[in-house]
Amino acid sequence: MIRRTLGLGVAAATFASVASFSAQAETVKIAFIDPLSGGFAATGQNGLKQYKFMADKLNADGGTQFEVIGFDNKISPKESLIQLKRVIADGIQYVAQGNSSGVANALTDAIKKHNKRNPDKRVLFLNYSAVDPKLTNEKCNFWHFRFDANADMKMNALTDVIAEDKGMKKIYLLGQNYSFGKAVAAAAVRFLGEKRPDLKIVGNELHPIGKVKDFTPYVAKIKASGAQALITGNWGGDMLNLANAINSSGLKLPTYTYYAAADGITKAIGKGGVGSVRLVGQGQTNPPGTDEWDATLKAFKAKYPDGDFTQTRIATVMRMLKRSMKEAGSTKPIKVAAAMEGMEHTTLWGDVVKMRSSDHQLQMPVRIFAHSDKGIQHDLDNSGFGLVNESTVTMQEASTPTTCKMKRPS
Fold first, then answer.
1. pTM of the full structure
2. Is 129 buried (19+), middle (13-18) or exposed (0-12) by CB count in 10 A?
3. What pLDDT, in 10s, does the model give residues 204-260?
4. Phi, psi at 199, each rounded to 5°
5. Which of 2, 319, 339, 402 is the right S-S partner for 359, CB 3.0 to 4.6 Å?
6. Domains of the chain by range and CATH?
7. Strands (DSSP E) found in 305-383
């Protein structure tokens, strides 16, 4: 297996060669391919700031230096492939992307094909937020690493909470009509069927991604259905517009979400979401978990007063990447990938995570957060509201099986 072969090579490397690698302080460019314009620009622009911030933080420690360069994909798989060609032509060998899974599916296929044809110009795909389970199951490949919990892992945690409410009898599913939205809906149907077969799904609707400006008609359907709760995977502009419609309608019901926070969303939810809006994710912000994470969040806010370090997994991507390069004694993607496989890592907020070798899906504790204005040390959108840790699912409990049959390069 490649990991064993490369591991022996790194172990046999002389101290002088490793020291030389560190001393050279090679600059590694990372292409950030995400929406930087249009309806989802707020999500992409904030993500780019977080990557650049972490690059600066790690660069200050010495050793390998990072430069993060933004490429606007306009949330289009076709445009993303055009940008990927530019990235490869520029000699960049590391790609970071997370929004959306439709884009991630296109990129992982293209990078896999490119690497097979161009072994001297290989590219490593660092997926920080695209959570379609297929990416680490039937479509898994050696060149793709995911640092976010996939949609099944998150829904498994959410439905545990929902299942505990024995008074709930009717629930509505609403999501975006593309691979991720479909994965969320399928996972909800499956896990609710297993845990609460008595609970009736009174609506299972998908809407065009990025096309709906007024969600009032959808909220009216939710009201009319008699649903006692809502599950949605909406993110970015679609979550913001949905939050505005829910508040305008006066609808007050438990809402279980994946990405209902920051980029204007927390401010839009406001007081109306206290006690009703919950989000599944990773990280630990209120409380911050460690003094270092607390200081990191404050430093980011000082640099970007209108932004928030919300995508905590970006910190993990960058820190694991730098550590992998140091352990491999190289910045070559194949050696870095081999070093990252199976790696256990302690996050800035204190969680221990592990990159599963079999499918390159990061294993991690998954948390349920409540939208609140109590116990907030780090609010979002400068609104006074933020996410408070409500419960934690351990790494072992959050793990789901994989069907991945990883083929490693020789």
1. 0.91
2. buried
3. 999 999 999 999 999 999 999 999 999 999 999 999 999 999 999 999 999 999 999
4. -85, 125
5. 402
6. 2-148+290-364 (3.40.50.2300), 152-281+366-397 (3.40.50.2300)
7. 344-346, 352-355, 362-363, 366-372
